[in-house]
Amino acid sequence: MPSTTASSPESNACWQQRSRRNVWHPCTQSIRLEAVPPLPIARGEGVWLFDQEGRRYMDATSSWWVNLFGHAHPALNAALKNQLDRFSHVMLAGCTHAPAVELAERLSLLTGHALGHCFYASDGASAVEIALKMSFHAWRNAGRGGKRRFVALKQGYHGETLGALHVTDVPVFRDAYAPLLANAHLVASPDARNARTGEDAAAVARRAAAELETLLAGQHDTIAAVIVEPLVQCATGMAMHDPEYLRLVRALCDRHAVHLIADEIAVGCGRTGSFFACEQAGIWPDFLCLSKGISGGYLPLALVMTRDAIYEGFVDDDVARSFLHSHSYTGNALACRAAVATLDLFDSEDALQRNRGRAARLLQRLREGLEGQPVDHLRQQGMITAFDVREPGTRFAERFHLAARAQGLLMRPIGNTVYLMPPYAIGDGEIDQLVDGTLATLKAVMATNQEEGARDVALA
Fold first, then answer.
1. Which of 75, 223, 297, 343 has the fewest other C-beta atoms within 10 Å?
2. Range of 441's domain?
3. Are 271 and 69 in contact (CB under 8 A)?
């Protein structure tokens, strides 16, 4: 480990100070940056990240859910270097290139050609914006311009641009900008944690779908689309639901002539156990949004896939009937090449099959270790595992994050929900390290709660 001082240019403290002075950090209360300084990362290797002073931390959240096969993967590095020797970017308006074409072909094949014509964007919120605009525009082209409202799930999250916030129901992100937003219809979440006495997850799904059915029956003439996060509503605390909900929503959308938008930005690319989460329900949406893991966590890339019939509705001599949305880096060649190489790794590493064993080991170790701890709702969907902490105390997520760093883990709870979403490169020994560190972190944080409680009693 290199020897550094707080004032040396190689020290963590130096980079933390420079970052606080010059960088506006996302999803962060700036006033807390002194107490919770950003961790300066110098390099990554596999599931590990290394700070400026050589300490390593397991990337237990896949760097905000984007990294699939680990940091500095040789195959992904080689693919990007190869593309750099050709060209890095060219506009996709009036031009095309092999990485964009090959990626679109490969993804369409994975849907059995139910979906195709990838429209490329840069990030998840942009993909949601595109899908919302496409849905409204498609209905207008079909002579049904009155279908202009959207239906979203309570607790749902779809991004933080204005259109995406329109269908987001997480107050901390939405409330400040509510005066700028139109109101979407909000319907019950199928979150399995909402089960009533005697209900299982499928029953919760049916109850939630019944509420949607009532809404669509009365207002389908004004509704363009329903947007859902298939199987897991991630940003609200890894709320998981039964695939039955997706089957019922698909049937309701067909019955009432409403589009179905599947936001697979966080849950696609194998996170839930299948490449597309919708596969587990045996359905396909009308629009499917992908981002995060699609480039392996290397470069910003997002896309929307849709049905041929919807695409064909935009093919017209009238420019007003065309979809003219764009941005300068649409279909960036480097990002698309990284995505094609990522798809290659799914095949060469048999990732989905191997992940089943990884997930089973992770869940079993956690189930054993959490017995008797103050937690509820241990749950798992593919490579996403979570549990909720009872009586977490003040600033639980912040305190847990800092305590996890001391255990060599990079974790970021959502409220009182602790979740583990490691890269697919994680090995058995690293799974054990992750679980042991998580359990040690939980015990340390809960012990602090008890100390604070005892101190409050003594002062009363």
1. 75
2. 39-69+350-459
3. no
